[in-house]
Amino acid sequence: MPEKKSSSVSWWTVLIAIIIGVPLLVVGFVTVQTWVPLQKAGKALDELDQSLGQAANYRPSASGEIPADRMELFLEMRTSLVAACQGYGKVQKAFDSIDSLDTKDPQAAEDIGNVALGLGGAALEITPFLARYFELRNNALLAASMGLQEYRYIYAVAYHDLLLAEATRREIFSDDVALSPEASETLRQCLSRQLEALQQSGNESPRTTEVHAELEKMEGDPARLIWQDRLPDAVHASVAPYREVLDRLFCPATAGLEMERSSRRAIAVALE
User: Fold this and answer.
1) What is the rounded distance in angstroms from the CA atom of residue 224 to the CA atom of residue 218?
2) 15, 39, 99, 123: most buried, per Cβ within 10 A?
3) Inter-residue contact 131 to 263 (CB < 8 Å)
4) Local structure of residue 65 (DSSP, 8 states)
5) Range of the domain at 61
6) Residue 138 burial (CB count, 10 A)
7) How far is CA 197 from CA 70, 93, 94, 178, 186, in A?
8) Interior angle at CA 135, CA 132 and CA 136, nearest 5
9) How many domains does the chain have?
10) Inter-residue contact 97 to 118 (CB < 8 Å)
11) Which 8-state DSSP code applies to residue 225?
12) Residue 254, Cβ neighbours under 10 Å: how many?
């Protein structure tokens, strides 16, 4: 009898260890898979800021026009990111599929089981994916010597209409908001530097008035996209020749994250 009791205690000990240990191992695995690329992403951005110095504080040209060589560099970066974006799309589908189930359908119970398996895998993958995505983007910025502020400005005006489109806002992964307060503030600062340069020229042109009016609107609405009502003609003309390629390289799912400095906000949204 004592031997049976010892065997029973041992069995329960193993079972409890498994119940406690497996989740901890999973959490540990996901943490490592997230932490390492996050550290690399932060290091790449720090190196970029150091190498650019004051140039990291982007100031658009007087007209707002984006030079062709910078547009082409931006497209190279988008090309390197689009494959990763497609990978995120697969993860996102697992989350979306649960919403499409009809719980009154007798088949739903089986469907829910199948979806739950996929959802579990997606939940484990989402935070490591976001960390890897920012690592990839920041390394691309570093290789191109393009500051994050310049990238944000080009992204905002190049994808202006798409960011404001209702279809995009339904898909966007970031609380249905294209801009975080931090990203919006950066764009406002870019516009402020542009206005300062225009005013220092001593020529109170219609362009100066236009930039000043847009800056006031942005200051009154922290969530406002730069030039939300309408892109200036010169800005529109500088991105128009690349429209077809830009549209092909646009990813609605990650559009709300592209202008973030780090993946902190993205991961917070993912875990809600």
Assistant:
1) 6
2) 123
3) yes
4) P
5) 2-270
6) 23
7) 20, 46, 49, 28, 17
8) 85
9) 1
10) yes
11) P
12) 25
| Amino acid identity for residue 124 in this structure | L
Amino acid identity at 171: E
Structure tokens at 119: 């959802």
One-letter amino acid identity for 82? V
pLDDT in tens, the chain (272 residues): 455 544 545 655 544 544 554 443 434 444 544 556 667 777 877 888 888 877 778 999 988 899 999 999 999 999 988 877 766 666 666 555 545 544 445 444 444 444 444 444 445 567 777 778 888 888 889 888 899 999 999 999 999 999 888 776 655 545 555 577 888 899 999 999 999 999 988 777 888 999 999 999 999 888 888 999 999 999 999 999 999 999 999 988 778 778 888 766 666 655 55
At 191, give phi and psi (nearest 5°): -65, -35
Helix (H) or strand (E) holding 261: none
